[in-house]
């Protein structure tokens, strides 16, 4: 099994084999929490306009997402797992657009299988990949705003490789230490309204969920995330 670590939208376009699109802070942590909160389906999209159009199609839809980390005007939620765990999503269609994560899903057009990745379901992702036994695994770290390398995404990519290869490079201490580097923005009081400290802990809780989210391209070119449990 060959591993490739790629970054940003261009990395998603280059991904082959099984692609894991990683956005720890916060898109693909949020998606897991949304399913856990009862959402019946998640549709990821690259644009605000597409999200609004999808809401007109699905009458029970809720919109979630961010631009510049903040909730988009007219949306029901931002991109905060803290919001999601307090919400009633039972039976709802969850429509999600973000600056980084969902852009990766939309652009991963050449991979055979596309999965989302985050610490909260990393072990399930690794087990699913083992079951598929691909020759190539492309781990795409989407980064901060899809333009700046993000330590948490690269660390998550390395952690998934650890789980697949039996190595132990990524320790709990390294994950916790993110609060002093790429995760320190969650502890800035100026960001507490849209990026509270609890988001950091919810996003770095290893293996909280035992399911994977597999991307399926829709006829409208948006992405359905299919929950598969183990």
Structure description:
This protein has one domain (2-229): putative 2-phosphosulfolactate phosphatase, CATH 3.90.1560.10. It is 33% helix and 23% strand. The strands form 2 sheets. It has a 6-stranded mixed sheet, sandwiched between helices. A 4-stranded parallel sheet has the order 1-8-2-7, with helices on both faces. It has helices spanning 8-14, 27-36, 48-57, 81-85, 101-107, 122-132, 151-165, 172-176, 197-203; strands spanning 2-7, 18-22, 41-44, 61-67, 70-71, 93-97, 113-117, 136-141, 211-217, 223-229. The chain starts with a strand and ends with a strand. The protein has 230 residues and is α/β, with parallel strands linked by helices.
Task: Give a quick set of tags describing it.
230 residues; alpha/beta; 23% strand; globular
Number of strands: 10
- Overall pLDDT, averaged? 97
Strand sequence of the main sheet, in spatial order? 5-4-6-3-10-9
Write down the secondary-structure element order.
Answer: EHEHEHEEHEHEHEHHHEE
CATH architecture: Alpha-Beta Complex
Helix content: 25-40%
Would you identify the regions where 5 or more consecutive residues have pLDDT less than 50?
Answer: none
Structural class category: alpha/beta
Count of domains: 1
Any idea what the shape is? globular
CATH topology: putative 2-phosphosulfolactate phosphatase
Radius of gyration: 16 Å
- Name of the CATH first level: Alpha Beta
Give the termini distance in whole angstroms: 22 Å
Count of DSSP H/I helices: 9
Q: Which homologous superfamily in CATH is the superfamily?
A: ComB-like
Largest sheet: 6 strands, mixed
User: What percent strand?
Assistant: 15-25%
């Amino acid at each position: 099994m060959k591993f490739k670590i790629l970054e940003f939208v261009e990395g998603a376009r280059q991904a082959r084999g099984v692609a894991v699109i990683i956005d720890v802070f916060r898109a693909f942590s949020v998606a897991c929490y949304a399913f856990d909160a009862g959402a019946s389906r998640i549709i990821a999209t690259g644009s605000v306009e597409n999200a609004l159009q999808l809401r007109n199609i699905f009458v029970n839809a809720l919109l979630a997402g961010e631009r510049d980390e903040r909730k988009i005007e007219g949306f029901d939620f931002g991109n905060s797992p803290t919001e999601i765990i307090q919400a009633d999503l039972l039976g709802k269609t969850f429509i999600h657009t973000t600056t980084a994560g969902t852009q990766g899903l939309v652009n991963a057009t050449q991979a055979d299988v596309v999965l989302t990745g985050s610490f909260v379901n990393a072990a399930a992702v690794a087990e699913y990949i083992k079951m598929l036994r691909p020759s190539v695994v492309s781990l795409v770290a989407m980064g901060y705003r899809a333009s700046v390398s993000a330590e948490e995404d690269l660390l998550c990519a390395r952690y998934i490789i650890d789980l697949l290869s039996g190595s132990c490079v990524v320790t709990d201490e390294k994950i916790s230490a993110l609060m002093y580097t790429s995760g320190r923005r969650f502890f800035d009081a100026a960001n507490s309204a849209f990026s509270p400290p609890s988001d950091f802990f919810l996003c770095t809780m290893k293996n909280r969920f035992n399911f994977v989210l597999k991307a399926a391209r829709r006829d409208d070119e948006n992405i359905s995330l299919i929950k598969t449990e183990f």
